[in-house]
Amino acid sequence: MSSLVRSFSSSLGRKLLMGASGLLLLAFLVVHVAGNLVLFAGRDAFNGYSYHLVSNPLIYVAELALLVLFTAHLVAGIVVTARNRAARRHRYAVKHWARGKSSKSHKSVASSTMIVSGVFMIAFVPLHLWTFKWGPNYPSSADPAVRDLYRLVIEEFRRPLEVAWYVGAMLVIGFHLWHGFASGCESLGVDDRDWLRRTGQVLAVAITGGFVIVPIAIWLGWVPA
Amino acid sequence: MSEATMTLTLRVWRQAGPDAPGRLVDYCARGVSPHMSLLELLDVVNEDLTAKGEEPIAFDSDCREGICGSCGLVVDGVPHGPQAATTTCQVFLRHYRDGNVITIEPWRARAFPIIKDLVVDRSALDRIIAAGGYVSVDTGSAPEANAIPVPKDEAERAMDSAACIGCGACVAACKNASAVLFVGAKIEHLTRLPQGLPERERRVLAMVTQMDAEGFGSCSNEGECEAVCPKEISVTNIQRLNREYARARLKPRR
Questions:
Q1: Chain B neighbours among A 112-131 (CB < 8 Å)?
Q2: pLDDT-based confidence at B1, cuts 50/70/90?
Q3: How far apart are CA A169 and CA A157, in angstroms?
Q4: Which CATH code for domain A14-88+106-219?
Q5: Is residue B209 domain-shared with residue B242, that is, in the same domain?
Q6: Which range marks the domain in which residue B196 is found?
Q7: pLDDT digits over B157-214, tens only?
Q8: Above 60 in pLDDT, residue A189?
Q9: Between vectors from CA B198 to CA B196 and to CA B199, what angle results, nearest 5°?
Q10: Which residues pair with B114 in a beta bridge?
Q11: Which of B57, B76, B105 is the last residue of a domain?
């Protein structure tokens, strides 16, 4: 155990921790977006899915694991960023990306703003839980024991501001994943960079697309109330 | 042969000593040949300065043929200048146009303190090597060279990593001033070969510990280091360093 703690207190160890926690959080996002898309299968399917999810006692284990992962990823990210800033006390008067001289660099706006897109989640995640997890508990007409989450989602995403905020937040997450997937894998020692970058970009677009299609479809009135 | 000459403005970082405040100072170089290298241009400017009784610009250089790793300047915001796979001494004025302004700064990293002007102290890299970047050989006669067979492709890969000249451009280019490309190249070079295997765990742990103690940052996996590396050391070395480090940490110790 002490060896594990020591591992994570080195510069490489902190990045291993960030990579592993980030990839597990990404796996959660894949499950989450798949669940969201059940909404298109209709009210009963969506409410049934959410009921089975929250009535399983393992949900508490999963929630605890997510909280630990999220906290670890965030804290490691802040610590790593602070130390990285400290590693260069005096800035360059003129500094340009070296991408211009060799295609070997994958530096992008996304890779340069990971801490910004990451810290943004401190604002988004609690509000998101407040809106949905701890939001109004409508009983469904079919079975009062089953929560009518479908109704809540439709109500929320009939409001343009709610749609804009949510879509914006998903774009920020997508931006984070654009660099995050490849970077996390590389921190864990996977060494096929070009494949990782392409896969990360496909994943970022697919996950963001899956998340934003739900509010947009509801807002456009494509989903029956 | 007609000799077109150029007039260039050099905007150079001047700093009298480690703790002195620094600033960019403009120097105009008139009538210089496009065949000169950037370092030769600095030599010309320095002769002028010396003749005028001013302090010449301090900068590092040695072989001036791109192999030693002594020179290293951030030229217009990019370590070793605009060309890929090139050291600063191989940047020639023909890459510039008459009237250009060229900004020259030293490597900037907490682990590379400025000694004077463009000269930085890169001994942090030497201390990382001293911590474990070697293969221990007991004294006695040299072992027979072919006693340990090394497959050709493994030898080639080790050589690719061993091409690192330790100039520090990777650190200078990295937004985090991280030295993992340097450390990765050394680890990979030694661990690829059978002679380096007996000490592999001790080596990677000691070198990473020293790297952290020197105050280098972490890797953000952007690859700016490889883009500026004059020897085109691949970031694959960093991923292999990550694996090697995790392996050494996870391996139960006696």
A1: 112, 114
A2: very low
A3: 14
A4: 1.20.1300.10
A5: yes
A6: 123-250
A7: 999 999 999 999 999 999 999 999 999 999 999 999 999 999 999 999 999 999 999 9
A8: yes
A9: 75
A10: B120
A11: B105
| Last-in-domain residue among B49, B78, B105 | B105
Handedness of CA A78, A81, A87, A89 (dihedral sign): negative
Helix (H, G, I), strand (E, B) or coil at B226: helix
Residue type at A148? D
Tokens of B77: 């915001």
Task: Please give the average per-residue pLDDT across B41-60, as a whole number.
Answer: 97
Q: How many angstroms separate the CA atoms of A135 and A132, rounded? A: 5
> What does pTM read for this prediction?
0.95
| Per-residue pLDDT band at B146 (split at 50, 70, 90) | confident
Residues A110 and A114: their CA atoms lie apart, in Å, by 6
- Which helix H or strand E contains A184, and what residues bound it? helix A160-187
B38, pLDDT greater than 80: yes
Beta-carbon separation of A104 and B223 below 8 A: yes
Token code pair at residue A28 = 């959660």
Picking from A81, A94, A114 by the largest number of B CB atoms within 10 A of its own CB, the best residue to mutate is A94
List, as ranges, residues 156-175 from B with C-beta within 8 Å of A: 173, 175
Q: Which residue has the tokens 């949510």?
A: A166
**Distance between A75 CA and the closest CA of chain B, angstroms:** 15
Q: Which CA distances in Å does A16 have to A73, A162, B144, B167?
A: 10, 36, 40, 27
d(CA A216, CA A223): 10
Q: How far is CA A44 from CA A19, A49, B184, in A?
A: 38, 8, 55
Same domain for B99 and B212, yes or no, is no
Interchain proximity B242–A107, CB inside 8 Å: no
Q: What is the CA radius of gyration of chain A?
A: 20
Query: Chain B 86-145, CB below 8 Å of chain A: which residues?
Result: 103, 105, 108-111
ipTM: 0.94
Q: Per residue in A196-219, pLDDT tens?
A: 999 999 999 999 999 999 999 999
Token pair 């934003």 in the structure block, residue: A212
pLDDT of residue B247: 95
The whole-angstrom separation of Cα A141 and Cα A147 is 9
